[in-house]
Amino acid sequence: MTEGSITKKLISFAIPLFFGQLLQQLYNVVDSVVVGQFVGKEALAAVSTTGSLIFLMVGFINGLFMGSSVIIGKSYGARDYDKVSVAVHTGIKFAVLMGITLTVVGFFFTPVILGWMGTPLDVLPSSTLYFKIYFLGGLGNVMYNACCGVFQAVGDSKRPLYYLMVSTIVNTVLDILFVRFFSFGIGGAAAATVIAQFISAGLAFSKLTRVDGPHRITISKLVIDPQIIKKELALGFPTGIQNSVIAIGNVVVQSNINAFGADAMAGCGSYFKLEGFVFLPIVCMTMALTTFVSQNLGAGLYERVTKGSKIGAFISAGAAEIIGVITFVLAPVLLRMFSQDPEVLAIGAMQARTESLFYFLLATSHALAGVYRGAGKTTVPMIVMLSSWCLLRITYITITVRLIPVINVIFWAYPLTWCTSTIIFIIYYFRANWMRQEKS
Questions:
Q1: How far apart are CA 286 and CA 419, in angstroms?
Q2: Predicted TM-score (pTM) of this structure
Q3: Are 120 and 181 a contacting pair, CB within 8 Å?
Q4: How far apart are the first and last CA of the chain?
Q5: Is the Cα torsion angle 49, 109, 204, 374 positive or negative in sign?
Q6: pLDDT of residue 195
Q7: 118 — alpha (psi -120 to 50), left (phi > 0) or beta?
Q8: Which helix (H) or strand (E) element contains residue 26?
């Protein structure tokens, strides 16, 4: 990342991430497709309503590991390999502890949270069952993301793709087997996901114990270094909070959607699954930019950081907008993957056509947030997301839905808040000294 063509480096790093995220999205969508086609729209609604709640809990923990990735990336760029090793072992040991915590909290407390979300009574039992089984795989989920974060921090975006390919195939086969042929219903879909999560985590962790390089894991060295964990949490905690506040905003959105009934839940849930594919180039370039910025700042290449951040943001916004236009045109056709119900399709298409032409704003916000995280300024994205994607979004929906009780006004919350965050991020980019580094 510190040498050669910037555009080529960013794209070559992002391409394996893209295919990995594509598989990850397919991995997530399979449950909805299989359940929607073979169980029914009530079961589809149950799977759909868990999405924002899952991100609320998993997003916080995964956000914590952003600090580990930034430290590893900067140390790797500066060729401080001893620090790379300590950061890797500290991060992985912490991931084990957090994965166990996620499993316990997710299993025992989600029925209460689903009740707070106003999940309809006809959907609540299925949602609770899916969610409880899903979080039995919490350790696998966290460990996979932590291990992949290590690979990506040192510039390796290919290995996570290989492991995800295997787990996606396993998830798809088991979904069809458990739901279609064994008639295990929504519980079978969740069980398939849990098994696949542990397979991907096992493959990634096993490779880290055998890889050549400073990021190799030695089991006996899996201890938490007090100084490193303090720095990792200082950098990662704002990102974890950011993920959580976005999720809290989405939980409020989901609660308002739930009030419109099962058709609305299924329709919006189907759109959110579709939107996940749109999100792919955004996520990939964001991760590429974080690694690029952290390594180049570690190497002291400030002009390269400035040029690379602009190139990455432009690529991300352009790709997202092209996909947004395609989504606008083909939404009714694409949504048929999840349901054939006319009401469900109509609501999903309405949301797609309200939001899709504004995807370039979403991409720009995420790209610049990735730049600031790579620079160690993780508090900045947290504050912007808290103010725009949580407080403003909740305030808008709370007021507007009561004045205009139609579901379409909920959809406009997204373009509005994307625009706000983009403006703030751009102003900060040009007005703040965000490349200034704190002493280690």
A1: 18
A2: 0.71
A3: no
A4: 22
A5: positive
A6: 92
A7: left
A8: helix 6-38
